[in-house]
User: Which sequence fits this backbone?
């Protein structure tokens, strides 16, 4: 039974990560931007698992575990913030949320 | 073409398609559903890599809880079609091509790299079973584990406080 | 040997006077200012007298006596000590400067009594004495240059003493700038001296020159460069233009600085550097030509001037030309002798002119004077004595010195008949215009309104210096009198060690070659020589034109109208300089240097860099748009760049 080289997984991870970054930059809806963050995290998880397999160690998997947990916490709080922002500005466009400047 | 390879390319392709759909969809709800597709595909890939526990956690927590949360929020806020406004010129002419080029370059490089070292042994589930993982978790990574639990607690409280309407 | 061990006292006294008067004198009464000023100069003069006594007791090997006070600067091989030296030449200069200076200081207390800024005047005057004495006692070119520049500064300050008057300040600037041109040549010469001799100390240079001959062309260049400094400072062609304008200053200033002392610094310098000049015949010829040409040229201008001080100014330029002529034909002692007698009679002429101006209530135009002889007798008689001296009438000081110069030009080792002829012609013109001055001022009918102008004799503190100087104008030249009857020239004998110590061998040999004549014959030759003839002719012509036929000058001027206008307008030299040099310079300064370099380049760079900073700031400000997506985009750019950097730098052999 031949095994898929780990580098294939890494390449896939890179592609997913790149797509996540593109989505982050080009989408206007703040919720979609959040989702792109999740996409990036998933890509990273894939890379971790692949490396865990490559080195036959469990640490990568533990790290993935934690990433998922933290992503959940972050999504909860982040979405709460999004709800507040959306209610405040009556819009979900990130371009309306431009007060992070001097 | 053996089964693992076929599975890899199918699921990998599905994941990529899903990611592209996330970008390309006009409605946020479509993006959310595409993202769920990505996650399921990734779960299969985790299985291929011999990490069943992680695959399960991915489905249960990520696809089943986090994405559901996203869907709830989208429905709550009635997020509709995005407005069409102009991209900044940097993004349009530099960012998009640059992003694609760099992504493909990285992928190509990684594909042909020896970075991962040996391809490793055959997939075996023994080493990555839940039992082993939890032993590892409670022994070496106890402190981060506890810390994460506190983090979740704080997140719950934070979300509650934030989402409460002003009286 | 108290003074010899402390030569610096001679310098310190006038400097202290200048400092006291300058800093504290503003609210002092005139008597106290006088006390400080006159006191310091008197003390310096007495120190010089004491110095004479001590000097006469020195053995010949101890001369020059050098007092080395401190090392001023050392930079690699370049070493300059602040050292003062006394030798025979220095003694002559010290005596002349301090004595005439003292007399003029006393005179000034009367002349400037009613002027504002009294304390300032005496402060500057004392400062001038300090610098002049430094110049004279210096042992190296740099300390001499300190004195040189210092007297230039005092000249500027004193010409522009009445600084609210534009013509005065313009004259001061003109003097300073014109002499600066000469000073530049002097500086280059100084550098060349150092490059050639690795030292600028006189003793070292002269010894080195005698031991190791230096190429004549190098010496010629050095001498000509140093001479340009003299041309500026001593107002020779072509840099003489500042001296007539310098008459804007008070008359005592004209007497001291522009007749007796400062302008003679150039002559002193040439005499001091005689070992170099004697070995560079071309340079000496240049000196002689410039001197003779200036003497003649300036005399022609003086023929028709109407301002009494301007006549004396051109006369000064002319007499300085004679001194350079003397040095140029190798007779340095004659040049210094004329310097000394000139200090007496020219100083006297200026002071007497000042007395006339004072008597006339400020009038300087001779055409508005006349018939003053009876009214201001002391002034008249002293001025007449000075005129007889400058004209070279036998018996007076000027005769001896001028005759020696012309004799050297005629039959000395470097004789030159053309220069001699110029000198003699100049002497004739000198006699003419000086007697013209006397006749116009003191004789004839008054050409002024006697009711408006109250002619009165000057007070004692002005007339007594006049009388003292008149005495020396007669007897000051008698040191050389025995020479005429075949005896010794005491003056030349006195200065011989200075001028023959390092002289080249040929010159020393030639100097011995003159057949001694019998005393009576020598005397006859002397008093019937051409210089005396032209002097008497000049006197007679002036008498005929201005006393016998007072209308003749006007008719003469009309008939040679062109020539008359040319002379009256000083050959239009000032206008030529203005057009050729001053205006282009101003144009370049305004357009190229001011608009182009200063405003365009320098301001441009400064303002430009500020502009660039502001511009880049405003561009960079746009980065902080508040737009999260653009922030994200920039983060991405940074991440990608960083990753590429890491990959290329730290990961090898991947592809």
Assistant:
């Amino acid at each position: 039974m031949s095994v898929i080289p780990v580098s294939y997984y890494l390449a896939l991870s890179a592609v997913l990560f790149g797509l996540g970054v593109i989505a982050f930059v080009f989408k206007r809806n703040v919720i979609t931007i959040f989702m792109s963050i999740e996409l990036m995290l998933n890509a990273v998880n894939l890379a971790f698992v692949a490396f865990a397999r490559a080195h036959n160690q469990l640490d990568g998997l533990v790290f993935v575990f934690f990433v998922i947990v933290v992503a959940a916490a972050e999504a909860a709080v982040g979405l709460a913030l999004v709800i507040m922002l959306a209610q405040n500005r009556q819009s979900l466009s990130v371009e309306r949320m431009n007060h992070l400047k001097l | 073409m053996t089964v693992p390879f076929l599975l890899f390319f199918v699921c990998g392709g599905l994941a990529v398609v899903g990611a592209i759909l996330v970008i390309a969809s006009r409605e946020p709800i479509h993006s959310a559903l595409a993202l769920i597709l990505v996650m399921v595909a990734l779960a299969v890939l985790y299985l291929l890599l011999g990490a069943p526990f992680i695959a399960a956690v991915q489905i249960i927590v990520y696809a089943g809880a986090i994405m559901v949360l996203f869907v709830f929020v989208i429905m709550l806020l009635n997020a509709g079609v995005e407005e069409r406004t102009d991209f900044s010129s940097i993004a349009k002419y530099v960012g998009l091509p640059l992003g694609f080029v760099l992504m493909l370059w990285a992928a190509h490089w990684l594909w042909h790299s020896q970075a991962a070292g040996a391809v490793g042994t055959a997939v075996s589930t023994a080493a990555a079973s839940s039992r082993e993982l939890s032993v590892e978790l409670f022994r070496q990574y106890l402190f981060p584990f506890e810390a994460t639990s506190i983090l979740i607690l704080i997140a719950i409280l934070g979300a509650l406080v934030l989402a409460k309407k002003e009286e | 040997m108290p003074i010899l061990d402390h030569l610096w006292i001679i310098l310190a006294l006038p400097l202290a006077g200048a400092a006291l008067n300058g800093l504290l004198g503003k609210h002092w009464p005139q008597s106290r200012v006088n006390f400080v000023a006159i006191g310091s100069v008197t003390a310096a003069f007495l120190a010089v007298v004491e110095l004479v006594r001590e000097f006469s007791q020195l053995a010949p090997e101890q001369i020059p006596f050098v007092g080395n006070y401190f090392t001023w600067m050392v930079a690699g091989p370049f070493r300059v000590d602040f050292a003062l030296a006394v030798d025979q030449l220095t003694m002559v200069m010290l005596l002349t400067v301090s004595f005439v200076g003292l007399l003029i200081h006393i005179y000034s207390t009367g002349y400037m009594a009613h002027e504002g800024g009294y304390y300032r005047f005496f402060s500057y005057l004392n400062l001038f004495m300090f610098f002049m004495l430094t110049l004279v006692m210096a042992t190296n070119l740099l300390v001499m240059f300190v004195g040189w520049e210092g007297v230039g500064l005092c000249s500027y300050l004193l010409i522009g003493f009445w600084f609210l008057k534009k013509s005065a300040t313009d004259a001061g600037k003109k003097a300073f700038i014109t002499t600066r041109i000469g000073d530049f040549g002097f500086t280059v010469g100084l550098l060349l001296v150092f490059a050639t001799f690795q030292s600028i100390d006189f003793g070292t240079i002269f010894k080195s020159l005698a031991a190791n001959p230096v190429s004549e062309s190098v010496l010629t260049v050095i001498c000509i460069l140093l001479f340009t400094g003299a041309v500026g400072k001593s107002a020779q062609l072509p840099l003489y233009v500042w001296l007539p304008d310098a008459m804007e200053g008070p008359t005592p200033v004209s007497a001291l600085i522009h007749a007796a002392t400062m302008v003679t610094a150039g002559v002193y310098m040439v005499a001091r550097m005689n070992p170099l000049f004697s070995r560079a015949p071309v340079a000496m010829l240049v000196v002689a030509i410039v001197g003779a040409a200036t003497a003649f040229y300036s005399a022609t201008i003086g023929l028709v001037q109407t301002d009494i001080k301007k006549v004396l100014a051109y006369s000064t330029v002319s007499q300085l030309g004679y001194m350079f002529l003397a040095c140029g034909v190798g007779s340095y002692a004659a040049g210094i002798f004329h310097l000394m007698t000139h200090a007496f009679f020219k100083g006297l002429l200026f002071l007497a002119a000042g007395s006339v101006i004072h008597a006339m209530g400020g009038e300087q135009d001779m055409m508005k004077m006349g018939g003053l002889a009876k009214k201001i007798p002391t002034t008249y008689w002293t001025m007449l004595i000075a005129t007889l001296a400058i004209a070279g009438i036998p018996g007076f000081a000027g005769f001896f010195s001028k005759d020696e110069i012309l004799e050297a030009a005629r039959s000395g080792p470097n004789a030159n008949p053309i220069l001699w002829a110029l000198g003699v012609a100049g002497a004739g013109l000198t006699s003419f215009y000086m007697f013209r001055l006397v006749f116009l001022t003191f004789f004839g009918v008054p050409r002024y309104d006697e009711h408006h102008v109250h002619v009165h004799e000057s007070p004692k503190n002005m007339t007594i210096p006049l009388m003292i100087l008149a005495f020396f104008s007669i007897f000051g030249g008698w040191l050389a009198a025995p020479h005429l009857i075949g005896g010794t020239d005491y003056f030349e004998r006195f200065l011989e060690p200075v001028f023959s110590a390092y002289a080249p061998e040929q010159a020393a040999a030639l100097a011995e070659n003159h057949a001694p004549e019998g005393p009576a014959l020598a005397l006859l030759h002397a008093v019937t020589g051409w210089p005396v003839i032209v002097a008497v002719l000049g006197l007679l012509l002036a008498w005929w034109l201005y006393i016998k036929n007072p209308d003749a000058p006007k008719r003469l001027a009309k008939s040679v109208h062109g020539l008359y206008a040319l002379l009256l307008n000083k050959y239009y030299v000032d206008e030529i300089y203005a057009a050729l040099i001053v205006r282009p310079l101003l144009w370049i300064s305004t357009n190229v240097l001011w608009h182009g370099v200063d405003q365009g380049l320098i301001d441009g760079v400064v303002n430009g860099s500020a502009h660039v900073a502001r511009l880049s700031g405003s561009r960079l400000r746009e980065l902080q748009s508040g737009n999260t997506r653009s922030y994200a985009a920039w983060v991405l750019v940074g991440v990608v760049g960083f990753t590429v950097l890491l990959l290329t730098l730290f990961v090898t052999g991947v592809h």
